[in-house]
Amino acid sequence: MIYLEHDQLEIQSPEVHDRARCSISFQRTLRIPDDGSDYPLPPGLGCFPLRHLDDYSDRLPDAWGRRGGVIMPMFQAEAMWLNFGGFSAYPFALKIATGKVCAITGEHWVNHLNTDPQDYLVLPEQPWLDGYCVEKGVVRQFVAMPLGKGYTVEEQLTDSAQHGGLQITAYPMKAERYEAMRNRLYEDMDMAPMAMQSPQEEGMGLAPGGRMRQEIYEDDYGLDAWDQRHPVRCFVSIANSAQWMAITGERPPIEPPTAEQYTESGLPWYDYYDADHEAVSGSDILKSVKSVSQTGKEKGVTALPDNESISGTRVVTLRDTRKREVREFSASESLDS
């Protein structure tokens, strides 16, 4: 089951385990330059607002109403990233697609998990996803573009502008596997477990933007760890600013600053380091897809405003702090000192 709380998706699988929960939010961010350079991770600038589609059933395009799920607004050429969380740290395998094209492999959407190549993320090891996995350690940023113009990954790989948006399926870890893992953890710790545009017009899809350094981690648990009998699915429709106002009656958030403005203000960019996990290889399919800037040049138009290259970024390195070991007291030292 999925709940919408505080502009994030709360995913729960109580039929599998009472701790099987995770959350997904969609973060506003800077659009990095689409210039062929590899950039660090941009910051989060707050969550995109999410609303239940069913609350606006009389104002929706027919296809959107049939999908269900939630709706979010994005300006044309605006970027986003997905943030994953959850207080329980219960492991999930998460499939992410845009226009029913897998964001990890570039292959068409299927309703099961694959390992060759791996077409899913593993939570909580994967803290976020900023774009399409085009090379090992490199993604191309998610950038919103109108359907029907040839920019989106969906159109480039399927010759269709049918779906748009994002498709998400979460598979919880099998309960028996989770309990065995918890018990091993407690044994290792020597502890016992505690009990204005017409909404009928085309929507928005996601297209590949600039390159950034980000690893998608391999599944260390193995395919058999995931309970594929109890998937949780959600369709996230993306409306442009005029559609959002026509459907919800709300104003969209203001446009974010440019990458150049942010950098000139001396604010930090980020790098994420986790030496305990190996990254998957990038997708040759997604690597062959043209970026928004490349497609725009072929069309003879400027598809991305404010696309100037930047330099002098201040980069802060982040690390996985979920399992940081405490240095033990040495028996040779005196407690009185």
Shape: globular
Average pLDDT? 89
| Total of DSSP H or I helical runs spanning 4+ residues | 7
Tell me about the largest β-sheet.
10 strands, mixed
Helical residue percent band: 10-25%
Report the sheet-strand fraction. Answer: 25-35%
Order of helices and strands: EEEEEEHEEEEEEEEHEHEEHHEHHE
How many structural domains can be distinguished in the coordinates?
A: 1
Please give the structural blueprint:
Layout: E1 2-5, E2 8-12, E3 21-29, E4 38-39, E5 44-47, E6 51-52, H1 62-67, E7 70-73, E8 79-85, E9 92-98, E10 101-102, E11 121-123, E12 128-129, E13 131-135, E14 138-146, H2 153-158, E15 166-172, H3 175-188, E16 204-213, E17 232-239, H4 241-248, H5 259-264, E18 268-273, H6 284-287, H7 292-299, E19 314-319
Parallel strand pairs: 4-16, 7-17, 18-19
Antiparallel strand pairs: 1-2, 2-3, 3-5, 3-8, 6-7, 8-12, 8-14, 9-10, 9-11, 9-15, 13-14, 14-16, 15-17
Keywords for this entry:
single chain, 337 residues, alpha+beta, ten-stranded mixed sheet, seven-stranded mixed sheet, 30% strand
